[in-house]
Amino acid sequence: MQAPVVVMNTNSGERQTGRKAQMSNIAAAKTVADIIRSCLGPKAMLKMLLDPMGGIVLTNDGHAILREIEVSHPAAKSMIELSRTQDEEVGDGTTTVIILAGEMLAQSLPQLERNIHPVQIIAAFKRALKDALEIVEEISTPIDTTDDKAMYSLISSSIGTKFVSRWSDLMCELALKAVRTVTWEPGNGNKEVDIKRYARIEKVPGGEIEDSRVLDGVMVNKDITHPKMRRRIENPRIVLLDCPLEYKKGESQTNIEISKEEDWNRILQIEEEQVKAMCDSILALKPDLVITEKGVSDLAQHYLVKANVTPCGDKEFGSTLADRAHAGNAHGSDPDERVQWGDLAPTRERRCQPVRVLTDLRAKHAEGKTSWGINGDEGVIVDMHQYGVWEPQAIKLQSIKTAIESACLLLRVDDICSARKGAQPGQGGGGEE
């Protein structure tokens, strides 16, 4: 009898095959989904993340949470990649797609335990995907993008679930204004919005949230270098510099031996003459504003202020921001304030039963009332058309397609093997594994 031929090194790493690999993938996907499951909806909870540098991040955004955690299982890494893809494609629904994919895999687990082949489960998922996409297309309602009221209700569905729900009206207004500011028509009748290229969010310490605004132009996070300079200039003539407005010191160490007091004064005079020559060259262009990414010396400030020119550089005055920061903490909380148990547990107090609410919702949908949904604040079913809660069709379609396709992909995996590790430095790589 011929001896078996070994075609794979069994000592190259951990390997899982068959049903064990499928169960491992499902468990990893469910674990990732359980991490952010409580971050979905208007009553979403926050996650506290500690980065390696000791910083703390509080957020309920699925993509922001998953990109900060480290996982080793390949299925978990695949789930995190779903969140990144969803964020890049449509910008929202990152939590939804992870939870939906994890739930699809969880529902397939009992079928696998009944020895149903994964190909049959995948075929059922694809039929469900086709039906879901057709239903979404059927019940979708077109809206006028120029209608502010309709756009506000659409934006608030996403903004309202975030930590800034207290200022959701302001954020909706800022978001809509920012998008319309960067919207442009290339000429073929279509509108293009490239937020990553033309929009930027700049955070300035101090002040209040209500001070946020959309600037139609370019923002430079610099301050004037002298208190007597103008803070508001209309239609300015601007000079941009990438060099410092100060005496440039030598790159190598220089020693000067001085024997007379006049020589020392002459050295200082040469430095002043060089700075004055730089300022004269700039003033010859008759600018109103000079912006440099480097430093601005006191002497250069003197010459520019004398010519009524405002420079902005690295030398900033932070007293105003510091005062605002202290003022923002002036309104402290009352240490004697107490919260009743009823305010913390409205669901238990009202005896809300999820099964009964879902049954009532399915009954409404069976009657053809597809616009009915669950009010996340009160736990009752309402007509979302009248309630003003909408979700973009693109987000829903992308979430369903991405979640089901990724679940089918993981179900097809029946073998997990570790790749061969590369040779370590200083070790010979000519031998066989």
UniProtKB/TrEMBL annotation:
Residues 325-345 are annotated as: Disordered. Pfam families: Cpn60_TCP1. The lineage of its organism: Eukaryota, Fungi, Dikarya, Ascomycota, Pezizomycotina. Belongs to the TCP-1 chaperonin family. Keywords: ATP-binding, Chaperone, Nucleotide-binding. PANTHER family: CHAPERONIN (PTHR11353). GO terms for molecular function: ATP binding; ATP hydrolysis activity; ATP-dependent protein folding chaperone; unfolded protein binding. One of its GO terms (cellular component) is chaperonin-containing T-complex. InterPro entries: Chaperone_TCP-1 (IPR017998), Chaperonin_TCP-1_CS (IPR002194), Cpn60/GroEL/TCP-1 (IPR002423), GroEL-like_apical_dom_sf (IPR027409), GROEL-like_equatorial_sf (IPR027413), TCP-1-like_intermed_sf (IPR027410). Gene3D superfamilies: GroEL, GroEL-like equatorial domain, TCP-1-like chaperonin intermediate domain. PROSITE patterns: TCP1_1 (PS00750), TCP1_2 (PS00751), TCP1_3 (PS00995). Residues 333-345 have a biased composition (Basic and acidic residues). It comes from Verticillium alfalfae (strain VaMs.102 / ATCC MYA-4576 / FGSC 10136). This is T-complex protein 1 subunit gamma.
